[in-house]
Design brief:
Layout lengths: L1 H39 L3 H14 L3 H13 L3 H8 L5 H13 L3 H9 L5 H13 L3 H14 L1 H11 L4 H8 L10 H7 L6 H14 L3 H14 L4 H14 L2 H14 L7
Helix pairs in contact: 1-2, 2-3, 3-4, 4-5, 5-6, 5-7, 6-7, 7-8, 8-9, 9-10, 12-13, 12-14, 13-14, 14-15
Length: 268
């Protein structure tokens, strides 16, 4: 009797396992079907629906990453964040870290990129997160680690980090063919070493401001004003920086300093 019961249990377990394996294979097949259809679709809403079906059936790094990109393209950053939080794949961690950076959620970005350890894109993200804080020292630490992994990409980021020292930044930039940081190609095509050094420092701070590295822009602009306290345009930049930071008092103070230097100047 015991042997019969044991055999029956083994038989039922076998049937159960076959059903589980069969369902997994079916789910994987249908998930891939929806994923491939999504890749072929040019309509973002159709792409979203197909990818959501793919993820519901069998979530994996590929379809989750593609769905997150689709959500971001549709302006649904909250949904993109929701599906990526808690995942451990480095590619998804870096995508989530970059989303946090774009939203100026610096602590979350640092924590997320930190999980990528010495992955090159994780290190690039940590460099940018530290620069968002205005902390060149810590950024240089991660830059040195990136240098060991990928010297060419490290030169791109070193150039951005050192914009306030034009010759040094240009030297790094001259070594690379491609750089994934926006604005640098245009910046170095429009500025030359022989230009006024104060103007170049101001333009570097302007570049940081334009890229939303406000603390870095503030630090460099204040350093410039220590060198040249009557620089109207540096005060005007400070006006914009503090306004964007939400500090209207400091913004107004710098506006008045600019007008005191040049009363005839008309602010837009």
């Amino acid at each position: 009797m015991r042997n019969k019961k044991t055999l029956k249990i083994i038989f039922l377990l076998g049937i159960f396992l076959l059903l589980v394996v069969g369902y997994v294979l079916f789910a994987l097949n249908r998930s891939n079907h929806y994923f491939l259809r999504a890749k072929q679709s040019a309509n973002l809403q159709d792409k979203r629906l197909l990818l959501e079906k793919s993820v519901q059936l069998y979530p994996n790094e590929q379809n989750l990453s593609y769905l997150a990109d689709t959500y971001i393209s549709l302006g649904s950053d909250d949904l993109a964040e929701k599906i990526m939080v808690g995942r451990g794949e480095v590619n998804i961690l870096n995508k989530l870290g970059n989303l946090y950076l774009s939203e100026n959620k610096i602590p979350e970005a640092e924590n997320t990129f930190g999980k990528g350890k010495d992955n090159r894109d994780s290190l690039k993200g940590l460099i940018l997160a530290k620069l968002k804080r205005g902390d060149r020292g810590e950024a240089e630490g991660y830059l040195s680690r990136l240098q060991k992994i990928n010297p060419v990409e490290a030169d791109c980021y070193a150039s951005f980090l050192n914009l306030s020292e034009f010759k040094k930044a240009q030297n790094y930039y001259s070594k690379i063919e491609n750089c994934d940081l926006p604005g640098l190609e245009k910046y170095f095509s429009e500025h030359k070493e022989g230009q006024n050094p104060y103007f170049l420092k101001l333009e570097a701070a302007n570049q940081y401001y334009a890229q939303n590295y406000l603390k870095l822009a503030e630090n460099d602009d204040l350093a410039l004003l220590k060198e040249k306290g009557d620089y109207r345009d540096a005060y005007l930049l400070a006006t914009k920086i503090y306004a964007k930071m939400g500090d209207q008092t400091k913004s107004d103070e710098n506006k008045q300093k600019a007008l005191k230097i040049d009363p005839a100047y008309t602010l837009n």
